[in-house]
Amino acid sequence: MRLSTARGTFAALRGEPAGAPRGTALLVPGFTGSKEDFIALLEPLAQAGFRVVAVDQRGQYESTAPTDPAAYALPELGRDLLAVSELLLAEGDGGPLHLLGHSFGGFVVREAVLARSTALPAQALPWASLTLLSTGPGPIDPTEAARTKMLMDALGGLDLETIWQLMQQMDEGSRDPADVPAPEIADFLHRRWLANDPQALLAMGDRLLGEPDRTDLLAALDTLPKLAVSGVRDYAWPVEEQARTAERLGARHVVVAGAGHSPNAERPLETAAALADFWSTVRP
Hints:
It holds the Pfam family Abhydrolase_6. It contains eleven helices and eight strands.
């Protein structure tokens, strides 16, 4: 579906429960990702009674892509989330609104929450809870940072198709055969990569390399229930760092067995169960 707001039009996937929703969840993807990263969560969360909306951020896959590089600054992405959130709340009868960000999306949801709380501190936040999924407090792990920097350098001089072919060549010698995607998935990943806006990728990569740690500011919002979810391993932020961040936030930390950086895709049933359990405890 398409979500039309004053901030632009955002492509979305939506899952609906059979009866009246117990709540609504807005799911925000990360760097090089899209709404499809959450597709395996839609059905189990809807079966648990939650309306679920996963979006492409501006410049990602099927959403609007502004031409101005400044349009991809983190505060702009945060304002987009507020606009989408207000649209969902205006529908009514969706129950409390829960916000979740995966990986880089965690920076965006944090930005949205902090900006909203600073701008109108006397008013309640539009979100009933915040979940950080496989995200860290600041810059990514140095090894992954080096890979991201290489990608950003390539974006400065090569087209997306050429970069895709180079990435496939690099993966051929190091990828476990068990991790090779099915042909239809590989085709989707290729199409999605080509649909990304290079300016958006550069802006997101820059934040992954240099975003400051704002955990203490987020922790100060002690009336907002928070959850941290990770896999047992993570190439972007060490799980131990994610656990320490959860402790600083006063948040419960759920580790999804058998999952890596994307529990939403790798262990969707277990991840959905953890999310539904948390959201069910939140009182609007």
